[in-house]
């Protein structure tokens, strides 16, 4: 099975650009009520994913007496604790499943490492459920 069957294309995915500030990234993640969001470079390459937890860990120093974070800094200055590894468009279903079991979504990149969309864990689970139900295995 081709993994692109599950693809939600970039045009339908919310993401942030790597050049934005922490403030703008926070506004984007909050306004969309996401727990994580992909980061894409200016040339369209997948840079990584930032999560609510990354922001929480970054801001925890406010309560420890350390200098307050500068919200005008680049979003890439926020350390990311989890690596949302992408899959290639040429990946097989086994590679996808190994990643989607540990990530809410899996970024998909083309042969040039350009971000082309995501595959959600929910969509993969729903597909498997439907197949099992159709084969009377539930």
What does this protein look like?
It is a single chain. With 138 residues, this protein is α/β, with parallel strands linked by helices. It has one domain: CBS-domain (Roll), CATH 3.10.580. Helix content is 29%, strand content 20%. It is built from 4 helices and 7 strands; from the N terminus they run E-E-H-E-E-H-E-H-E-E-H. The strands form 2 sheets. It has a 4-stranded mixed beta sheet with strand order 1-7-6-5. The protein has a 3-stranded mixed beta sheet with strand order 2-3-4. The two termini are 22 Å apart. The relative contact order is 0.20.
Give a concise summary.
The chain has four helices and seven strands.
- Fraction of helical residues: 25-40%
Shape: elongated
Strand content: 15-25%
CATH class: Alpha Beta
Count of strand segments: 7
* SSE order: EEHEEHEHEEH
- Given helix and strand content, the structural type is alpha/beta
- Architecture per CATH nomenclature, i.e. the level-2 architecture: Roll
Q: What do we call the CATH topology?
A: CBS-domain
Distance from first to last alpha carbon:
22 Å
Please count the helical segments: 4
């Amino acid at each position: 099975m081709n993994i692109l069957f599950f693809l939600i294309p970039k045009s339908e995915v919310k993401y942030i650009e790597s050049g934005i500030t922490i403030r703008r990234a926070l506004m984007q993640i909050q306004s969309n009520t996401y727990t994580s969001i992909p980061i894409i470079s200016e040339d369209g390459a997948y840079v990584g994913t930032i999560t609510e937890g990354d922001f929480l860990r970054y801001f925890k120093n406010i309560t420890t007496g350390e200098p307050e974070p500068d919200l005008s800094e680049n979003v890439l200055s926020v350390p990311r604790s989890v690596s949302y590894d992408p899959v290639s468009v040429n990946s097989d279903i086994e590679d996808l499943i190994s990643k989607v079991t540990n990530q809410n979504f899996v970024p998909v990149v083309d042969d040039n490492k350009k971000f082309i969309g995501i595959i959600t864990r929910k969509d993969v689970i729903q597909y498997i459920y439907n197949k099992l139900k159709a084969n009377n295995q539930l």
